[in-house]
Amino acid sequence: MNTNILVFDQAKTFLGTVTFFEDGSLDLAEWAEAGAVAMTAAQNTWSGLGLPISGDQITENAIGNEYLMTMEPVLPHDSRFIHAFRQWAVIQGLQIITLEAEAVPCWGKIKHLPLSDEEKFTMICSIQSLPTEEIQEWLSALEEALKAAAMA
Length: 152
What we know:
Blueprint: E1 3-8, E2 14-20, E3 26-31, H1 36-49, E4 51-61, E5 64-74, H2 81-91, E6 95-99, H3 104-110, H4 117-128, H5 132-151
Helix pairs in contact: 3-5
């Protein structure tokens, strides 16, 4: 199953969705209007240079073990790219939400509601923490809210 990560800035402005294949490699990045310029530029960099991922290396020498922190570029087709993306997002000060599979349809409805990005952020965070049966109830309620918004 694919992994969907929602990307928000510090002000909780929705920047876009990044989807990864089951193996962790990049499938698709779709940027919202607010994230189109900055995130597309960042994505162009990832495509060519990759994203750095940190790791540890332990080597033995005459006086004992030596621990080194390493940085290695990971390209989008690499299965470690999802981890590199998460590290990069944190360093950039972005807020990311990894959507649970059950919450993906809810996000599909929430993003079309006439709410602020901050309200959408809060709503999807709240829904994600619910048991599956309650998420299904929310999905029905969101469908009704979309219908009501369309008639208004």
